[in-house]
TrEMBL record:
The lineage of its organism: Eukaryota, Viridiplantae, Streptophyta, Embryophyta, Tracheophyta. Its EC number is 3.4.19.12. GO terms for cellular component: cytosol; nucleus. Keywords: Hydrolase, Nucleus, Protease, Thiol protease, Ubl conjugation pathway. Its main location: nucleus. Signal peptide: none annotated. It comes from Gossypium raimondii. This is ubiquitinyl hydrolase 1. Residues 57-83, 621-644 are annotated as: Disordered.
């Protein structure tokens, strides 16, 4: 730094005092430092003493502690520093005073000199220069700019070059912009000039045709395209009548100005195409002629459909002819006019037998057939299969006839077989109840197999979607357990009516009772073995001996509601169905336990809740609630009925009764305390129990009444005031009598 300051400079630099570092203390190696810093924006001085900051104003060193000297030349406004030692070092334990010279103004300079014994370091900012024509000074590898900023010489050179190139680019852009604007102005003047001369004022004047599409592009683009009139040119090299809306007339003067765009055909006043005009006229005449012919042929076709035509010579498809008559009268053939004989042509290329599906045909006169043939060839000239000619003496395909005969024979035999089975099993086919007697031998069949057989034998030949039932021996074997070779299903329920026994018509019964004769016929018809059947005998047992009868053999007993006319002896007796083989209660119990566990482990299933308004629930709701079968007619949305509302709720087996009541509260608006929840006739009131504990399964229908004892309140109060206290029950005992005071009886 001393070397730089010792060198003479051509430019006199002027600095302004910006900060003073002050030392307070008796020695240089101890004491306290504070700083006085000048705000360049306001000119005020600030004192920084650790965390304390104070404003010193514009006179940081006091008004009366300075000596003032006036000097006329601004160049003398320099800062002097002096000390007793001459080199700025401390003399003994005392810091020598430093004189501060501060300039107040530039005109008529008033310089104030301040003297301080505490100032330790002075900081200056470059203010301005004198006697320098340039604001940049090059010294060594550095370039000094204004405000004391310096840059390396190579960076300064690069910046200068970039600024120069930027200025050149701006000038080139201005020149290019000027050229473009001049060109646009010139193009606008050219377009206006040509369009002003374009109109043809008289028919006798010479004119030229030009494409309106090209003319629009020429007027819209700055760089006009090459002249192109191919879009308005016909195959004869002239302008057809059909292009009258796509051309524009130009005067000879305007056309000469387009000569510089080259290309394109020139169409003068008389270059309209007479050949195309003649073709159009011929087409119009032909269209009128075709319309008239089609109208005449349509009348003949209607007579054919009404069987009023006796001079038929060729076959056509009846369905195709019906559709052809329904179509509107057109000017030319369409796609639908193809294939008049396609559906009556067999895969071998011959006439399809009329017994085949969709092969109905009619005889049409020769002139009508020729009209059909011409239209079909016009629409599809390469498709000969769709327009095969079949005269009236054409023979049907022998191969297709044989195939159809075999199919017809098979259908006849199947029809006879179904008729015979319906006669052999008249009551079973019609679904009527069979009267039963005690001590008579009957047989049991799966109800599902019997239902499939009934659908098969009663279906018509047109409905082939009903599949044949399975072989009877395989179905019977599935009803027996492999472990004990006993019956895996319980016998159906029996009712006593008018002196006879009848099987109850319950959809839950998996077996149906049939007579011994029906069983023998089924064995002959569906591959069954008579000895392999499941026989059943109905016996009457007294109430006292019922338990003893049940202990001797597994059986299903059904109590009877006897009529008044039945004698007292029959009133005290109960029907018991004995089966051979016996019912395997062990395997049935295992299966029912598994089914029950599956039912108890459901999740995200729907149950239905009725809101009953009135003292008692209607009989329809009670029956629906008692039934365990899902109601397919029930909508998943809330449904309003005459007796109240019906909602479906998504629940799981672990949902508590408390949670269910909260869901009912939210859906139906009945306060939890006012809800009297029922399943059938049973009241459900244990809030800590789960739905599985209360034997509520998917699809069950519950009903609830509003007691209206407690006042209505917001459900949010219940959610905030109470917490659900659900009793955790061991999963292995759920649904059994081992759960605490909760019944497991299936309702």
């Amino acid at each position: 730094m001393r070397g730089r300051l010792s060198k003479p400079s051509q430019v006199e630099l002027i600095y302004d005092l910006s900060a003073v570092l002050i030392h307070k203390g008796t020695a240089a190696n101890s004491g306290h430092y504070i700083a006085h810093i000048k705000d360049e924006n306001t000119g005020q001085w600030w004192e920084f003493d650790d965390e304390h900051v104070s404003n010193l104003g514009h006179h940081p060193f006091g008004e009366g502690s300075s000596t003032s000297n006036s000097k006329s030349n601004r160049s003398d406004a320099v800062v002097h520093s002096s000390c007793t030692g001459g080199d700025g070092t401390a003399n003994g334990n005392h810091l020598d005073p430093i004189q501060l010279q501060h300039e107040e103004s530039s005109v008529g300079s008033h310089i104030e000199m301040f003297s301080s014994t505490d100032a330790y370091m002075l900081m200056y900012n470059l203010s301005s220069k004198k006697n320098g024509a340039s604001t940049m000074e090059i010294e060594g590898d550095a370039v000094f700019l204004h405000d004391g900023i310096s840059l390396p010489s190579h960076l300064c050179e690069e910046i200068t070059n970039l600024n120069s190139s930027y200025v050149d680019a701006c000038e080139q852009y201005k020149l290019k912009k000027k050229r473009e604007l001049d060109h646009i102005t010139e193009r606008r003047q050219e377009v206006r000039s040509v369009l002003s001369e374009a109109p043809v004022h008289s028919v006798e004047e010479p004119f030229y045709w030009i494409s309106t599409d090209w003319l629009r592009q020429w007027a819209d683009n700055i760089s006009p395209p090459v002249l192109d009139n191919t879009s308005i040119q016909c195959s004869h090299g002239k302008i057809p009548l059909s292009k009258a809306g796509s051309v524009k007339r130009l005067s000879a003067g305007a056309w000469t100005k387009f000569s510089k765009y080259n290309g394109g055909s020139t169409f003068a006043k008389g270059d309209h195409c007479l050949d195309c005009l003649i073709d159009v006229a011929h087409t119009v005449v032909c269209a009128d002629s075709y319309r008239d012919r089609r109208k005449l042929m349509k009348e003949i076709a209607e007579d054919v459909l009404l069987a009023k035509c006796e001079d038929g010579a060729y076959y056509v498809s009846k369905a195709w002819l019906q559709q052809w008559v329904k179509r509107k009268n057109l000017d030319a053939p369409c796609e639908a006019d193809a294939g008049p004989t396609m559906s009556i042509r067999c895969p071998h290329g011959h006439l399809m037998p009329e017994q085949a599906a969709g092969a109905k045909r009619l005889l049409v006169p020769e002139k009508l057939w020729l009209f059909f043939y011409e239209d079909a060839i016009t629409v599809k000239p390469d498709d000969s299969s769709g327009c095969s000619t079949f005269p009236s003496d054409s023979e049907e395909c022998p191969e297709c006839s044989n195939t159809l005969s075999e199919v017809a024979c098979l259908e006849d035999s199947r029809r006879e077989m179904k008729l015979k089975q319906r006669q052999n099993h008249e009551k079973l086919a019609t679904g009527k109840s069979i009267p039963l007697s005690s001590n008579c031998k009957y047989y049991l069949l799966p109800s599902s197999w019997l239902s499939k057989w009934r659908s098969y034998v009663t279906a018509s030949s047109k409905h082939t979607s009903f599949m044949e039932p399975e072989i009877l021996d395989g179905v019977i074997n599935l009803l027996k357990c492999e472990k004990h070779s006993r019956l895996l299903e319980r016998p159906p329920k029996v009712a006593y009516k008018r002196g006879s026994f009848f099987q109850k018509g319950s959809t839950t019964d998996r077996l149906t009772i049939i007579t011994e004769n029906d069983w023998k016929c089924f064995c002959e018809e569906w591959g069954g073995t008579e000895e392999n059947g499941i026989s059943a005998i109905i016996e009457l047992c007294s109430s006292n001996d019922l338990a003893e009868c049940c202990g001797g053999m597994p059986m299903c007993e059904q109590p009877l509601d006897l009529q008044n006319e039945v004698n007292n002896e029959n009133e005290s007796r109960q029907p018991v169905i004995r089966t051979c083989p016996e019912v395997c209660e062990e395997c049935i119990g295992e299966r029912e336990s598994c089914e029950l566990m599956q039912k108890l482990n459901y999740a995200d299933e729907d149950i239905y809740v009725y809101l009953v308004r009135g003292k008692e629930a209607p009989k329809s709701i009670l029956q629906a609630s008692e039934s365990s079968e899902p109601d397919r007619r029930t909508s998943k949305r809330s449904r309003r009925t005459n007796n109240g509302n019906l909602v479906n709720l998504r629940v799981s087996a672990t949902t508590s009764i408390y949670q269910l009541k909260m869901m009912i509260w939210e859906s139906l608006g009945v306060v939890k305390e006012n809800q009297i929840l029922h399943k059938g006739s049973r009241v459900i009131d244990q809030e800590t129990a789960t739905l599985a504990d209360m034997n509520i399964f998917p699809g069950d229908r519950l009903w609830v009444k509003d007691s209206e004892i407690h006042e209505d309140r917001d459900i949010a109060d219940e959610l905030s005031d109470q917490k659900m206290n659900v009793e955790n029950i061991e999963e292995g005992f759920r649904g059994t009598l081992l759960t605490a005071n909760i019944s497991s009886q299936v309702v």
